[in-house]
Amino acid sequence: MYRLIIRIAWASLNRRRTRSVLVVLMIAFSLWGLLFMEGIYDGMTEQMIGNAIRSGSGHLTLSVKGYRLEKDINMLIGDVAALDRFLAGDPRVQTFIKRLRQDGLIATAHYSRGASIYGVDLEAEKIHGRLDEYLEAGEYDFGRKKRGAILGVRLAEKLKVGVGRKVIISAQDAENEIASAALRVTGIIKTNNMALDETAVFVADQKARDLLRVPAGVSQVCVMVKNEEDINGLQAELRQRFPELEILRWDEIYPALMQGRVMMEGFNLVTSLLVFGVAGLGIFGIMLVSVLERLREFGIMMAIGTGFSRICYIILLESFFLGCAGCLAGGLLGGATLYYFYVHGLDLTVFSEGLDVFGMDTITYAIIRPSYFINAVFAVALATFCSVLLPLRILKKARPVEAICKG
Amino acid sequence: MIKGRGRGAKGLRGRGMDFFLEIRQVNKIFRTGRDVEVVALRNINLAIDRGEFVVLSGPSGSGKTTLLNIIGGLDLAGSGTVTLDELGITGLEEKQLSRIRRDHIGFVFQAYNLLPVLTARENIEYVMKLQKRTQEECDQRVNEIALKLSIETLLAKIPNQLSGGQQQRVAVARAVASKPKLILADEPTANLDSKSAGDLMDMMQRLNEDEGVTVIFSSHDPMVISKARRSVILKDGEIVANDLSG
User: Fold this and answer.
1) Does B109 sit within 8 Å of A401, measured CB to CB?
2) What is the rounded end-to-end Cα distance, in angstroms, of chain A?
3) What backbone torsions phi and psi does residue A198 show, to the nearest 5 degrees?
4) Quick check: A151 and A185 in contact, CB under 8 A?
5) With contacts defined as CB-CB under 8 Å, which chain B residues touch A4?
6) Is the CB of residue A11 less than 8 Å away from at least one CB of chain B?
7) To the nearest whole angstrom, how far is the Cα of B134 from the nearest Cα of chain A?
């Protein structure tokens, strides 16, 4: 009997091919739109977060307690060797970098700006956060004599300097004296991490130490883990082993980014509800017409002894077939689109000014997560199921003779 | 005997009667507007024996179809009782009525009403499939009926590939295939030409004799009425004549 029910459902859909194709297209395009939006929006958010983690905080940032409130050059992590040993030996740690940082001033002949001076090891930064990939102009190098500086793009714009120009950096050293050095701009980076793009001046670690008279110790250590699920565990262990240090996760350092991610999830949910609300209404309309149009047929089936449950199966199967076909088509289309933008990225250069303000990249790479497809299939199943409830109710209320007459 | 629960399930045999179908004091009123009432059936009393070949005749609007619908459990009587093979079907729930229709009653409709997406063979075996008969049983029965009704060559066709007469023969085959105790046919010849109508009635007569099935059909065609062995005439919802004509 079930084979016959499947046959009736399938043949009924086939008999109204145009309408069936229309419903399938409606589901497919809704699904495609949903997958596309989810993938791109998540891509934007994750890129923003990724930029901040790679160029700034890492997954975990370590500094001495109180440093974040008062960034004093004397508030340094002293026992770097112990930290080095622990981090180098922990299998959860992918990479870590050490930075010396002091706030100061950067000036040209015409302009001056507040700046954050970072003493860094460019090779370590390259391995850690692929800092070299953010290079907008010049070279990822401090020059042969290490007298170069790499500036954030916004800072360079404000100072109106380009690669090769000379700048003077000055800051208070460890002995509370004003120290300054003349450097030549060797590179300009654009990380889309606003804090860095607007204030960062990267100089060679040794140059910074000489300038600030800090022979040892670091201001901050940034740690990248292999698996994000290990962040909390590693943070707890580090806190236990190094109680004198403040150890913060990226989301504690950039709470706005975390809020952005949560907001985007909410936005995606609302968009999904809207898209499938509209699609559900479309499917509902078509299924309602389909059932009302065949009321006589269902009346005859009831008259010759078909139970209501079997008629339910037929209608549910029809919507199931439509939902499956729509899911398959939409999933393939959406998957292919997401894959394309995952590889090539979505070029939003026309909106670059606006995106820059929010620290977003102009080329957004989509993200593909199995959860998109699972959620979408669930949403389609729910929408198609809900869309046949009213038609079934109408049918249940009708006696066979009424159904035959109404049909 | 039909198994089931319901008013009148005790039947009439205990009171000395032995009818297959007993209709007592059945009334049916349709309300078409707020205060508009149409009396479709008025105090109908009718008893039909097993194996009878009965025609309900009368002018349009006399209540033939309504009476057939009530006998078949497709519609509810306003009052009165209908007892089919010792089972009172009045007051049963739709689920129980559906089971009775599936197992004991075959329907032939004026407009054939075959399922348009199924082939003639699938239409004929449909009720048997509902009864969970095996495919082998279905095939055997379909072939047997198809031979009797001369529709062997039509079995693979879908309804819109068949003429009206062919569709009605398939509809009759569907009605008798599951070996029901009662066949109800509502103006089965209304859409057929006189030759096809005559052939169909001959066929139904043969089935009635061969299979022993009780047949009640409605018609206002004198040629068709003449084929019945008993004629019940309705007028304005009342039985005005109840004769053995055969």
Assistant:
1) no
2) 25
3) -90, -20
4) yes
5) 118, 122, 126, 129
6) yes
7) 10
Residue A77's DSSP bridge partners are A218
CB A54 within 8 A of CB A129: yes
Residue A281 C-alpha, separation from nearest chain B C-alpha, in angstroms? 27
Question: Can you state the percent helix, strand and coil of chain A, rounding each to 5?
Answer: 60, 20, 20
Q: How far apart are CA A279 and CA A31, in angstroms?
A: 9
CA-to-CA dists, residue B95 to A289, A406, B102, B176, B182, angstroms: 26, 21, 11, 22, 19
Q: Map tokens 């009704």 to a residue.
A: B149
**B144-200 tens-digit pLDDT:** 989 888 899 999 999 999 998 899 889 989 998 988 999 999 988 887 788 888 888
Residue B80 gets which letter from DSSP? E
Q: Is B119 helix (H, G, I), strand (E, B) or coil?
A: coil
Q: In terms of residues, how long is chain B?
A: 246
What whole-number distance in Å separates Cα of residue B116 and Cα of residue A213? Answer: 93
CB count within 10 Å of CB A279 equals 26
pTM metric for this prediction: 0.74
ipTM: 0.85
Q: What is the C-alpha to C-alpha distance for residues A363 and A349, in angstroms, rounded to an integer?
A: 7
Segment holding A63, helix H or strand E: strand A60-64
